[in-house]
Sequence to fold (247 residues):
Amino acid sequence: MNKLKGKVAIVTGGATGIGKAITEKFLSEGCNVVIAARDLSRLENVVKELYTNKSDILSIKTDVTKETEVENLFSSVIEKYGRLDILVNNSGAFDGGVLEDITFDQWNRVMSVNVTGMFLCTRQAFPIMKNQGGGKIINIGSIAAQRARHNSVPYTTSKHAVWGLTQASALEGRDFGIAVSSIHPGNVAVERRSDGRSSTGRDEGPEPLINPEEIGETALLMASLPKSSNMLEAIILPLSQDYLGRG
Fold:
């Protein structure tokens, strides 16, 4: 208990799914959490649901693809708490289809949320964490960064970029005590339906799923490691998922 007591975290996409699960796990360990997303009503509902006397939870409406809104998110956190110990880049967009049918708008939406939004948040976090002597940044990637699925060009491309951003940021941050990591989830219940139809719309048959809470446990482990260590990469997926040996 109290593994993150007194620390301050931002979780983007914190109103649903993986982001909400991570928020709940951090709160249970004494962390003050600021959740950000575009849907204010969902954010407010999560605050009401997860509020605890043990730690603080705050919501700030933010579209991570808009530079000014990202700047407002981070300045608001510093104004209230005076520090930022953990950033979880979780906001994500899913889209796909037959390659030649993918529109420019579809491509831009996925890349803007999954890559540009993550860059904007990381860029804001770096000077804060440098000035305070370190911090942890956790990027939510995907096993799509290693194993592509059919009809997933925008999503798979974006998750390869997330892994590249993670490595480049980790390299720049290590001399300043900033640990940058990536969690690569497999099939998570919030991203795939039990009938096997993926976010791309392609029916690949029923597949095993893990719960968002299991991603939350992994994020907590990364966030609570000593300052001297970094779990650079973690793949978490259902034990029986077709991943190894898939080509």
Q: What stands out?
A: The first strand starts at residue 8 and ends at 12. The chain has a mean pLDDT of 91. Residues 119 and 165 are 8 Å apart (CA to CA). The beta strands are 8-12, 32-37, 57-61, 86-89, 135-140, 178-185, 233-236.
